[in-house]
Amino acid sequence: MLILEVDVKQRVSVNEFDRLAAYWVMTVVGNPRITVRLWDGNEFYFADGTPVAVMEFRSRSALLNLVLAQSVGFGEGYSNGRIEIHGDIIDFSNEVARAITTRRNQNYYASKLSSLLRAIRSNTLTRSKGNVHHHYDLGNDFYEMWLDERMVYTCAYYDDADASLADAQLAKLDHVCRKLELKPGQDVIEAGCGWGALATHMAEHYGVNVKAYNNSHEQVSYARKKAAARGLNDRVQFIEDDYRTISDQCDVFVSVGMLEHVGLKNFRGLGKLIDKCLKPTGRGLIHSIGRSHPRPPDPWISKRIFPGGHIPSLGEIAAVFEPYKFSILDVENLRLHYARTCAEWLQEFDKVSDEVGSKYSKEFVRAWRLYLAGSSAAFEFGTLQLYQIVFAPHGNNDVPWNRKFLYSPESSGD
Amino acid sequence: MLILEVDVKQRVSVNEFDRLAAYWVMTVVGNPRITVRLWDGNEFYFADGTPVAVMEFRSRSALLNLVLAQSVGFGEGYSNGRIEIHGDIIDFSNEVARAITTRRNQNYYASKLSSLLRAIRSNTLTRSKGNVHHHYDLGNDFYEMWLDERMVYTCAYYDDADASLADAQLAKLDHVCRKLELKPGQDVIEAGCGWGALATHMAEHYGVNVKAYNNSHEQVSYARKKAAARGLNDRVQFIEDDYRTISDQCDVFVSVGMLEHVGLKNFRGLGKLIDKCLKPTGRGLIHSIGRSHPRPPDPWISKRIFPGGHIPSLGEIAAVFEPYKFSILDVENLRLHYARTCAEWLQEFDKVSDEVGSKYSKEFVRAWRLYLAGSSAAFEFGTLQLYQIVFAPHGNNDVPWNRKFLYSPESSGD
Hints:
Largest interface: A-B, 48 and 49 residues
Structural class of chain A: alpha/beta
Radius of gyration of chain A: 23 Å
Largest sheet of chain A: 7 strands, mixed
Order of helices and strands of chain A: EHEEEHEHHHHEHEHEEHHEHHEHHHE
Shape of chain A: elongated
Strand content of chain A: 15-25%
Helix content of chain A: 40-55%
Mean pLDDT of chain A: 88
Number of strands of chain A: 12
Number of helices of chain A: 15
CATH class of the largest domain in chain A: Alpha Beta
Number of domains of chain A: 2
CATH architecture of the largest domain in chain A: 3-Layer(aba) Sandwich
Oligomer: homodimer
């Protein structure tokens, strides 16, 4: 490994220990092509090739927090501005994700020390109080500023390379409906319906009757208004309640972007609920962020963005289905679509960041930029996956023999 | 439940205990519409509706063996002719599979007793010596009698409802090749190549270089002769060795119908091997029989047909991939195709059963008929699944954005 000191202005405040800390920080993430700039202007570069961006630590404590608390240290440091990224934040995130994904034979002592620091960090975590708003306290106005017109806050499906975000969200709704082979008059249960885009779309274009569950009062109110405006009140019912209260029988069970928030210990219960609700002739679809390896959630994302969630591996998702009588029919991984979705969300978000900053805080804007860029990078480099899983009760043989129908123009709704 | 005694010829030998045993046997499998006929002509029917077939016990010991050793008792009893099925064996197998799949709220005491009997049975099993030839001792001649011309002994793909077995096996080879996006000149490793149909097809029609592994001397000799006859010796190499000796780098890793024989404890090792061999830009496919629930193999199938195998659930298959850096890209379930494949194999087998009987034994023919019919039924009712899993190393973004290309006519080889 080439160690390049791009600019060695030796000022008083940076010592050998600081340099070692910077080296350590970059080694742990696989030596990305990122220049480290310290508070006195000293720069270090530990990789080969041309740097992609500069990461500036504006204080020693920001650097030490990164050593001690890694993900949280970086997330908090970037949010509060003690860490600055010079360059495009998506390029920066992609480069870090690339380095993490491709690092091989991680240093034994580095990984031991990393575990030890994780243990120390878990205390640090409980001590620090959150001052950034959590995801679901934010209200509809915030999301309306930068989501597409249908308010879809899950992975889009870029059916066409030139598709806009709004087109791709519409294509996703249709892709899900096709996979479910919706037929007019069928009863559909949707668990976790967000602002109601899918529920409304299914009722309007596929003629089904939908009961959609969501425990967010603001989202349900919004969804009801939208459905009423489209004259769909007789076919879509939005129920402000937890998915665990679902008890009706249905032909189709669908859940898009909820499993990530359910928590691993509730997977079996979710499966039991689906097993109870779904008619023997029914089918279902779960759309969820996934991981390649079972792993605890990223601590900073847990702390600031999605408290209580768990992003499962496919093996962990099996716990939803395998205790019950289901055939998993089809699993599609759309991770590249989610990388693009997050990058487009960030573009939209950046257009309104001043407005967001004045309504919330600069720290909030920076936390969200980091979250969207980091998510995009994680999908781009396969540390996150997006699974759409189609399933049916065991004995249901009224299932398609192949998947051609998904790609033929006739199979859309209306 | 209606208990019908269709024909109550009370002869001396059948007592109340025998009737209870017959009742027990049918209850455990969910009361299929099967008439039980005992050795004295007495018939019992414990279901509603019209009987699909008659199961005749020609001796008390055959009935008691079924009570004690369930799957093994039935398999052995049918093979040695002490149990006879009157009616079509596929209809019989489907009806039993249907009843097992749809039984609800299995009787608590029945399931407790069933577990107890399983414990007793495991002793019975070790005591009885096998006299039916195992799968891989059988030689090429046996399989040539009833497999398709390419000698493909895995699930076919009925691209077209009218396809013959041979057409469907060819379509399966192309379906696998398309999923792998083979490009001329690529290096392919195939683990467990049977008689070489896929390896030869890939080399001949997709212009790739194949190293195909199989530790059966007879199969490898056969495959080499076929490839030589097609002038493919420069592009296909058949290696008579265990898959665990694979060490070359490759662009594509494929394994069709091997995972079932690998054994659960070796899944992680298989994943490690693929992780080592597959280039960062590569992709792979595993095609395997699967289950909805993790479960030990059927004891009779283990004893007589596939010793040492384990049919994994999707959650168990995750153990191949999740310790390493893979994205699972696509999972397709082809269970209905395998139900049809097995049923068509049985038809072909029946055409040559006299010849098979004189070469081996009547018992052997009956064991194979039961195995093929039972497998067809298990796929038909979803107790068995057939998964094709496409995967790629984590960071490989040269993967398709959607699956349209699988269904467009241009994507075939040549």
